[in-house]
Amino acid sequence: MAVEENTRPLEAGIVTDFSQRMNYGSYLALDELLSLQRPVSEPVHHDELLFIIQHQTSELWMKLLLHEIRSARDLLKSDDIGTVLKRIARVKHIQEVLTQQWSVLATLTPTEYAEFRDFLANSSGFQSHQYRAVEFILGNKNEKMLSVFDSDPASQQILRELLEEPSLYDEFLRYLSRQGFDIPASALERDVTKAYVFNPELVPVFKGIYEASGDNWRVYEACEELVDLEDNFQFWRFRHLRTVQRTIGMKRGTGGSTGVDFLQRALSLTFFPELFAVRTEIGA
Ligand code: HEM
Ligand SMILES: N[C@@H](CC(=O)c1ccccc1NC=O)C(=O)O
């Protein structure tokens, strides 16, 4: 059989009979995955598919983000800092993808969005349980957020567990204590169900680590990884805010908040305050 010009001939070994074998689509449950984009606008607005896919892909990456951060937190309990660093390296790449992805949604103009926004009713990203789980495990705990999930007990239960468990940073401080660093009891015995708040007693501990980085290389590296992670989180929040601003201006959110003003306030939150405070104390 003659091979057509500018085509790649299939090799003899290429498998084509999947009647009895697992294939790509069945492994990945593609039939289900690709049937889950269900626009609600009537008549269906061209851009609603973009809106749905932007959110669904974000949720998939957040699923992995949570999986990796949870694992990093649990590995700290067994003092396996090497694997923790590997987990955080991956977390940072996922965050970069999530932040880059905003440029796709930024092609949605305010006019186009206004044409289907009403169909979204009161649904909002504020109700994303995976996003809230990531915030909680990073230490931004807030029990009041649980009420949003009253009608979704399974998600509410996961959030309640994360609220009650130590955060990634709580476990990092406990790890440092086990490694011989002088972590004050006020940090080790804090109420982990509350949002983490700045503890000035920790700054000298980090100052010691940063000034003798060569003696504590892994710990020093871990501190810098956490700083990167927080920076990346803020970059995502900032891109979200700017996308919201260019799409709905100063309108209230569908979730009931003031919108841009509400999101702006999240930019002053911090997960690892002492790791930023220590910078003021370093050098001259
Ligand atoms: C045109 C696109 C978007 C607009 C206009 C928008 C708007 C808003 C607004 C106004 C809020 C505040 C809560 C409210 O009252 O609704 C919010 C929260 C939120 N949105 Fe979006 N959003 C957009 C896209 C996205 C995307 C793609 C994601 C990705 C998952 C997302 C995730 C979130 C999350 C997680 C929150 C809660 C933030 C927090 O608690 O600080 N949003 N959004
Ligand atoms: N809060 C947005 C609506 C919105 O963006 C949204 C709606 C449903 C599901 C996810 C959303 N994304 C982020 O908030 C708004 O006020 O227009």
3D architecture notes:
Its cofactor is heme. Keywords: Dioxygenase, Heme, Iron, Metal-binding, Oxidoreductase, Tryptophan catabolism. It comes from Subtercola frigoramans. GO terms for molecular function: L-tryptophan 2,3-dioxygenase activity. It is an enzyme of class 1 (oxidoreductase). The protein has helices spanning 24-27, 30-33, 48-77, 81-100, 102-105, 110-117, 129-137, 153-164, 168-178, 185-188, 203-211, 217-248, 260-266, 273-281. It has 284 residues and is mostly helical. α3 runs antiparallel to α4 (81-100), α3 (48-77) packs parallel to α9 (168-178) and α4 (81-100) packs parallel to α12. The longest helix has 32 residues, at 217-248. The protein is globular. Protoporphyrin IX containing FE (HEM) is lined by residues 54-55, 58, 105, 108, 113, 124-126, 128, 131, 240, 243-244, 247-248, 253-257, 259, 262-263, 266. The site of N'-Formylkynurenine (NFK) has 10 residues, from loops.
> Which blocks of ≥5 consecutive residues have pLDDT under 50?
none
H/E topology pattern = HHHHHHHHHHHHHH
What's the Cα radius of gyration?
A: 23 Å
Secondary-structure-derived class: mainly alpha
- Overall, the morphology is globular
Amount of beta strand: under 5%
InterPro entries: Trp/Indoleamine_2_3_dOase-like (IPR037217), Trp_2_3_dOase (IPR004981)
Family: Belongs to the tryptophan 2,3-dioxygenase family.
Keywords: Dioxygenase, Heme, Iron, Metal-binding, Oxidoreductase, Tryptophan catabolism
EC number: 1.13.11.11
